[in-house]
Amino acid sequence: MRVFKFGGASVNSVEAIRNVAEIVRNYLDKPLVVVVSAMGKTTNLLERVVPGVPKSETERRELIAQSSDYHLSIARQLFGNDSNPTIDRLQELFCQLEKRSSMLPGVYNYDYDQVVSYGELLSTTLIAGYLNSLSIDTMWVDVREVIRTNENYREGIVDFEASRCRARDIIGSMIDTRQCRVVVTQGFIAGTDKGTTTTLGREGSDYSASVLSYCLDAESMTIWKDVPGFLNADPKFFSNTIKINKIPFNEAIELAYYGASVIHPKTVKPIQNKGIKLNIKSFVAPMADGSVIGPFESIEPLTPLYIVKNDQTLISILPKDFSFIAEDNLQTIFAVLARHNVRVNMMQNSALSFSFCIDNNEILLDAIRKSLHEAFLLRYNTGLQLITIRYYNQQIIDEIVAGRNIVLQQRSRNTAQLLVV
Question: In 62-214, where do the E strands start and end?
Fold first, then answer.
């Protein structure tokens, strides 16, 4: 059994979905579990209709209509008409989304998961229906019945033992009894024992595929991207990028932790534990070699690696009583960050202040301010860029900073992080 994961860019149009179907058709020599993200920029759009976020009811309705038009237009082109069970199911999902997004706001993280999860339900419904229309024997599985997490909304913690049992009972049995050749299911989302929906962190579809690979003892896992493999830098920011052919598991974990866009931070560990190799291949050139993450000793070829994160916010926290930043202060601060599921991209403390860098999010920034304002002063800067360089030297740093102001920096033996204006 193989596990394939297709991201939003690989399923964002009629032509893209047809290409995915062709890739699937070429790998039917073994059973496939196909994990799919929301189509295109659907997740970004759905984040804007979470209760409490839209500026008006008109805006909320317009955004949902925009998403509905996008999905249904693609479906009609794929199926040829409106008289189709897949289109009926898509319309039913949009009715549910309309109802859920119109509720009064409650706890943001909970509301977020219940609304944003519709992106993956829509995409997989469409793709499973299309594969079946091509006579590719396919079954749609609701991953919320398979991957179990706690109630830590927006960053659910996976219960691997419960998920393993459910994956084998639901997906494994379908394949073992030859009910289908292909299982299509969702990335990013999961479920609790209480029947509520959770998500696994932004861009968590890679992690979903990794969890399923672990639970099902997959032969291999493949992430299909719009790049030829694991590149040493994002081609959106750098020209003359270099494809890395082999990446050790531990190196991939480090790169993902710092924000390498090609892979989610939590993806590698489950497959490393089972020794499952992870292929990164191009859906544009599916027969090309790509890159492999596995039990290698070093990256090949060895070259500097660059990771860039835009739209960063630097928050500096100082005690109001002018005391030192001690362990009790840090404990309070980290408890607040954990409660709001804030991921820190870089941190640094001095005797009098604690500074950390996060992805810009006005709602979470406001929540941090409210939670800490009684005991601490907060200062923050927005619109910053965080650059991480693995295997750096001073010449490389000078070239990439190019005279810009460095707000905060950290260096270790192999890694430099620079927060610049």
Answer: 138-140, 182-186, 189-191, 197-199
In a domain, 256, yes or no: no
- Cα separation, 11 vs 378, in Å, equals 42
Q: In this predicted model, what pLDDT tens digit does every residue of 111-148 receive, in sequence order?
A: 999 999 999 999 999 999 999 999 999 999 999 999 99
Question: What's the token pair of residue 241?
Answer: 């990028």
Strand, coil or helix: 42: helix
CA distance 337 to 325: 16
Buried b (16+ CB within 10 A) or exposed e, 121-144: bbbbbbbbbbbbeeebebbbbebb
The domain tally of the chain equals 2
Assigned domain for 234 exists: no
Query: Could you tell me the residue range of the domain that residue 353 belongs to?
Result: 305-420
Token pair listed for 239:
């020209």
CATH of the domain at 23: 3.40.1160.10
Cα–Cα distance list, 275 to 13, 175, 305 (Å): 35, 22, 24
Distance of alpha carbon 138 from alpha carbon 127, whole angstroms:
10
Tell me the C-alpha distance between 406 and 386, whole Å: 10
Whole-angstrom distance, CA of residue 286 vs CA of residue 289: 8
The Cα–Cα gap between 280 and 266 comes to 16
Residues 198 and 313 in one domain: no
Contact 294, 249 (CB under 8 A): yes
Q: What is the pTM of this model?
A: 0.83
Query: For residue 320, how far is the Cα from the chain centroid?
Result: 37
> pLDDT for 249-296, tens place per residue?
999 988 888 888 778 778 999 999 999 999 999 999 999 999 999 999
187: nearest Cα among 126, 91, 123, 132: 123
| Phi, psi for 339 (deg, rounded to 5) | -60, -35
